[in-house]
């Protein structure tokens, strides 16, 4: 059933498979008056682009996006924005071997059972390739949010058992890991190289911060901003855990420590991660996600074929040894899309949300 | 803005505040032909009812539910089911002191900023009291799912730093903690008593398992079942973390260990928690949530009033020293509501889902 | 499947059957800060109330509404508003004869086939009795719209072949027909009396005008305001035609006459009925609906029973000889609900819509 | 705000302007297993294509559609179907004169006020050009419905004051008017030629019949099938009236004549147009729509510019002298989309709807 539209007020609907002719999106509900051009989107696409480093999949895609509607003389008109990217480097023959096999850890098994038919080439629609359109749409959301002083930024905070604490935003786009600590890069490279030698893969934790939000975003009791953030992040391939603020650590915290006391100068801590009762407090939104290790590794494993018979599976194709790395721009995009959707819907009652509606 | 409806095919819409005259829900989309009566719902309501033990809030509510429509001669007719519960033991005078103050860790601050007006009595709509209607609606969902062999069950798996491993479902309803291990009860009681003496509170982790699901439930790429489970659970008051299957632990797992290999006899592990590509595999769905400690404790803390001036806050009222405990039936209800919603929507394409539509 | 929620931003969800214990609604998304009390709603309920004149059904209901949530100290808080009306004069025994029969022109046949089970008492959920909750929710919408200078008013413009042109709003609530022409009342009374003698019924046309709308309401290409007005009116029992502006007459109009030319002083005509491209022009919205004659008449007719066998049907019960008459406040309510829903959603982009958000 | 998605279960989301580079659609929720190829869609596109006769706009577009996803080896996979058509014959310079003027009867005025910015070339998004994507998506819906024995067919039933009764489906695609009566063609041609000489335009009535529907489609009380049909048709440019079954004529009908009596052999009439209580009866759905005359005619008229000053407007461009004619395939498409959406949603409860889910 239809499940490819995200959002209510600022919506994105996407299509496209890993090895089909093209991927596309329709962004609907973008306010008129925003300057936007293809290069605004391209910047974000490039940061998630496959083939850009030794540590991600070697598939090479230019991911060149075309804006087909909704922008007139460089300015959004309020009508839907059509986006299109043609696939260029899809080597479908890599996949003929798995035509009748289910790769463990992948969606092959569930797609086959659900739909009765499966585009097996590169995982078809279930491939992380579909996230290119999330990032493209997210770039528009981020540009709009930026005009309001809202920024959404992520970094890798853990890779395997290597803790990667936040040091500086400046460094993030200058290394292939979205790592915010320059001193950790050689350790990461060595670990990734050893993984590749072992024909194995590893999980990762990504942290995202959104700051500049006004107080008052989120619609209890079901359309809470925290609930929708959990939704948008768990919809990303390989994500198995979403934490807000203190996250899993709150289990062993005392109430006297956890509650963020308030002073006339503001909150004195942010264990809540910027959300109380599902509504933004005005503090930064802080979120962490855990991504499982890539299931496609070149180490042989056991599985079954479509007839239920035992088979060996060795995934050839070209894959990321740590899918978590490239998830950073995707998670940023999903958070940006969630925030803009809520922001526009809250403007409906004009509570506390003041927005500049001049051409921006 | 409107945010009080949950689901698309089997929807619940709720109303009601902690100290208003009544709480209610409309359950829309329940298939016709299901035997349902008030006592089916009452059973679940009683398990989350306040005042039922020494270890939860002392507010006493009978939570007696009335079915006002949608059921004719004991059988659902396919029309919306109206549910109503009157509040009985609301002591609003307990709250007059916080009329102009924001309790840290509560939604007082955000509701005030969002809406410009706030029913301060017991937190109004932001009180966990609203969850009574989630449990009532969830009971209908659970009864329907049971006719298909689907069960949703939860237990407390951690309280503070006390690990509470699963031992047996039988014991869960026989202790006030939803604990599945009979040997841990005295430790829990002692710890809770010490908390009360210290005027403090603690967090908890709840685990929920749904078994009996057919393969094929969930609609990628945005209406994935895992994304909607994350959403439904993060919408519960005090939840700060949602984990599926391996959850946060996947960060440090190797791909060769994490991927669940398949044999003709079935999957050999379930790190995925019953979900691949956002679609149910047919294995049990396994989910964990972390709930923060109750913010309302009788230890004095710093805050501000509605004018931004410094104030001391001591919460009187009647509160749970560990809100996580009573979250077990609420989390079960939300998962049941999410599953039935997806199940009915998937029947739309009739993929793999076979359902008995006789009167049940 | 779930179909009992109307709107996206200002939503109403309703429940209740003709002869069940109660009917109810949840109004979600009403802006905070609106003064509202039960008597505001009661006024509109009284105008559609059965038993209020010799010319409508003799069922007597007080239709006394209770507000159960969402209003604190007389002011809306932004949380959902629960509304409840208990049924008082339901004589279910009147209907036992039709338990196994399908009344022609009614939904008995379709409900039975769709759901496999039917609350036959008074038509159950398919009875026009459900419209009481549309009117209650509509009263809240109308009060909010009134604060913005938007009024929605209707009158009967045709009954059978009697044309009833608009003369004055003042007279409408002073006659049992919602007729705007005082000179027509005796003709209407005579005609209705003759119908009753003939044990027959008749159709009617209702016209509704909404004025005071800002320019710019409506979201092409699918969520156009005209499309949503057509939807809301065709959802009323017995309506078979919806016309906007020139309506059916545009078929034989020339373009040179139909297009509404514009001058610096404004449009020189309003054949468009206040809508161009699905967006409000700022002129009055003008709509006409046609309602079929009551199917429940005491003249015998042919039908079948649930086993497909031939039966005679004579409807006893208590019915309106012209259902169209009481449709006036219902149509007003539906238009008001549609306009407020669009108005709030358009405020999301703040285009041209300026709204006072002080407490009103 | 977002308004470019239609449907809930089988959804279409569209983008594109009259003179932009391309138009596109995403069809989401199409069941897997349907054979579909571009020529299936092209057939319907050709029937609404501009430039195909002397009696419609002279703009020449091949309207060649590409399927970009969702179909694998000629069969739908259950994933979203991306559709794309490039614009070829857009002469934007025709429109430079109206850059600052509002054409009466068009959406220029309302778009300008709503969005503050307007793609004036050919009406931009408000052009009937957007309907090309409705027809493309509708072709997929029609093919699916055909496998269930459901057909949706339309014809022109009135042009100006010329009544065009139904004679035979065979003739409809063999004349440029979608006229079902071969004897009327010369009269139509003469009338259209005289209109062109007079530089004027005329309205039309289109009738659509859907047969083969099972009993039980439609979800009261708000998601009724009749309400959604009214919505889908009123969303078509220039439509001002939607009638179901007896339509406007029911106003002067007696109840004893209007109600469709039932016999063991079936209904003896179909004044209800195949819908009772908003649910399909199993009889043919019968609908009529009225379309206003084209506003763009070469006769000078009065208007204002964006500064509110008086201007003369003479529309150059290339336009249909009767927009109603080409509305036939568009109306068919919208009805087909509405029916498939309801059909799939009703299969959720499996009531009375039996559907072949083999590869078709």
UniProtKB/TrEMBL annotation, chains A, B, C, D:
Please indicate which superkingdom the organism of origin belongs to: Bacteria
Database matches in Pfam families = Chorismate_synt
Q: Which CDD domains match?
A: Chorismate_synthase
Q: Which InterPro entries match?
A: Chorismate_synth, Chorismate_synth_AroC_sf, Chorismate_synthase_CS
Question: What Enzyme Commission number(s) does the record list for this chain?
Answer: 4.2.3.5
Q: Which GO terms describe its cellular component?
A: cytosol
Instruction: Return one GO MF term.
Output: FMN binding
Coiled coil located at which positions?
A: none
Record text on cofactor binding: Reduced FMN (FMNH(2)).
- What's a GO biological-process term for it? aromatic amino acid family biosynthetic process
Cofactors, names only: FMNH2
Keyword Zinc annotated: no
HAMAP family with a match to the protein in the record: Chorismate_synth
Instruction: Quote the function comment for this protein.
Output: This reaction introduces a second double bond into the aromatic ring system.
Q: Which family does it belong to?
A: Belongs to the chorismate synthase family.
Q: Which NCBIfam families match?
A: aroC, PRK05382.1
Q: What is this protein called?
A: Chorismate synthase
